[in-house]
Design a protein that fits this description.
The complex is a heterodimer of chains A (114) and B (117). With 114 residues, chain A is an all-beta fold. Chain A has no helices and twelve strands. Chain B has 117 residues and is mostly beta strands. In chain B, the strands form three sheets. In chain B, strands 2, 4, 5, 6, 9, 12 and 13 form a seven-stranded mixed beta sheet that branches.
Chain lengths: 114, 117
């Protein structure tokens, strides 16, 4: 079955530090890959996505590249801000078997300190 | 910007009681979902709904759970007899479907925090 393995948290960084949150996946088909973010007290928001190999998703300074050879979709940001503090979820959706549900990783709690 | 709305934001119920969680998906979307997140754990898929029927459900979605689209706008999740372990944040989501593009991403509501006491 499908699965997503995500870097364990929590992660604490200083403002303007470089961020990497690792995500690898297992899928039997050709998944689309997503990063969702959950700010304190809020629901899940799509941060970025990539639908095929070598695609790069980007939004709000965050980037992730779909690497089929390493089955990875690591999230990166060059300079984090306090407002980036949130829980980040890597997820996949494998449509090749008509399966549109999302499979999530465990989430990584990110705290940015001034 | 269109959004998925969920009500109530927080519900407290006694064990054994029935609860109905309500969602209004984005109006032109065709696929609807419920997920849940037990505190501190991963977001788990419960059920997907398309064309007025369940298209897939997880092993969590047992006979105590049901979903319904009673009219053209609402999508509900009913838990018939709540257990303590049903305490979680429940997220509704919806997505569009384009034949040339495949499904777009799922848009999530703010969630309903269910507390069973």
């Amino acid at each position: 079955g499908n699965s997503v393995t995500q870097m364990e948290g929590p992660v604490t960084l200083s403002e303007e530090a470089f961020l990497t949150i690792n995500c690898t996946y297992t899928a039997t088909g050709y998944p689309s890959l997503f990063w969702y973010v959950q700010y304190p007290g809020e629901g899940l928001q799509l941060l970025l996505k990539a639908t095929k190999a070598d695609d790069k998703g980007s939004n709000k300074g965050f980037e992730a590249t779909y690497r089929k050879e390493t089955t990875s979709f690591h999230l990166e940001k060059g300079s984090v801000q306090v407002s980036d503090s949130a829980v980040y979820f890597c997820a996949l959706s494998d449509l090749s078997f008509g399966n549109e549900k999302l499979t999530f990783g465990t989430g990584t709690r990110l705290t940015i300190i001034p | 910007e269109p959004e998925v709305t969920q009500t109530p934001s927080h519900q407290v119920t006694q064990m054994g009681q029935e609860v109905i969680l309500r969602c209004v998906p984005i109006s032109n979307h065709l696929y609807f979902y419920w997920y849940r997140q037990i505190l501190g754990q991963k977001v788990e898929f419960l059920v997907s709904f398309y064309n007025n029927e369940i298209s897939e459900k997880s092993e969590i979605f047992d006979d105590q759970f049901s979903v319904e689209r009673p009219d053209g706008s609402n999508f509900t999740l009913k838990i018939r007899s709540t257990k303590l372990e049903d305490s979680a944040m429940y997220f509704c989501a919806s997505s569009d479907f384009g034949y040339s593009e495949g499904l777009t991403e799922a848009f999530f509501g703010q969630g309903t925090r269910l507390t069973v006491v």
